[in-house]
From TrEMBL:
Signal peptide: none annotated. Gene3D superfamilies: Tetracycline Repressor, domain 2 (1.10.357.10). It comes from Flavobacterium algoritolerans. This is TetR/AcrR family transcriptional regulator. PANTHER family: ACREF/ENVCD OPERON REPRESSOR-RELATED (PTHR43479), ACREF_ENVCD OPERON REPRESSOR-RELATED (PTHR43479:SF11). The lineage of its organism: Bacteria, Pseudomonadati, Bacteroidota, Flavobacteriia, Flavobacteriales. Keywords: DNA-binding. InterPro entries: Homeodomain-like_sf, HTH-type_Tx_Regulator, HTH_TetR.
């Protein structure tokens, strides 16, 4: 039952926002009593925290699946963007923006895990791109990881609209790739840009 509650809450939080969904809403949607939810979660904050952890685990799993396939480094980044577009397509407001605004303590806890996950993903992608001749081999990997991370998280934490977040993230991805790319990488980027993510 606990997993079912988290699953439904996660879906509702992403679709309608962490702030606007109440324990009553979740209970009503699941046709259970609010008392049943409180049996597993003492308050809404705990439910949000566990739901966010599940979202992270899912995101991590999907990224691992994409990176294990035979995509080159640039295709891989576009596939990951597609995954995020699909995962958050029902969301109007950026989940990170909502957490930072309404639940700053949870946002802080989440951030530590998120920073590590994203920086590892960015670093591995850059190393792969260099090995494939798509990115220049003279770049300072850690600096580029931090630049890209700063760009993506500034967008997510400060822009309310998920649609606008997605559009700016695509611009950031193009900017990041062009900054590192070899001629071969630019050609690969242009090829991927012909297949827009919607």
């Amino acid at each position: 039952m606990k997993e079912k509650i988290i699953s439904k809450a996660k879906e509702m939080f992403l679709k309608l926002g962490f702030k606007s969904i109440t324990m009553d809403d979740i209970a009503g949607e699941m046709c259970i009593s609010k008392k049943t939810i409180y049996k597993y979660f003492a308050n809404k904050e705990l439910l949000i925290e566990e739901s966010v952890q599940v979202i992270h685990t899912e995101v991590n799993g999907i990224i691992a699946e994409i990176t294990s396939k035979d995509f080159n480094a640039i295709e891989e980044n576009f596939e990951i963007r597609r995954m995020f577009a699909e995962m958050f397509k029902a969301t109007d407001t950026s989940p990170l923006y909502q957490l930072k605004k309404h639940y700053p303590e949870i946002h802080e806890k989440v951030l530590t895990y998120q920073v590590e996950m994203c920086q590892t993903c960015f670093r591995e992608n850059i190393e792969k791109g260099i090995a494939q001749g798509l990115y220049r081999n003279d770049i300072n990997i850690e600096v580029y990881v931090n630049f890209y991370y700063s760009l993506i998280f500034t967008i997510n934490e400060n822009i309310r609209s998920e649609r606008e977040v997605f559009s700016l993230e695509m611009e950031a991805l193009q900017y990041h790739t062009r900054a590192m790319a070899t001629e071969k990488g630019i050609a690969e980027l242009e090829k991927n840009l012909l297949n827009p993510i919607t």
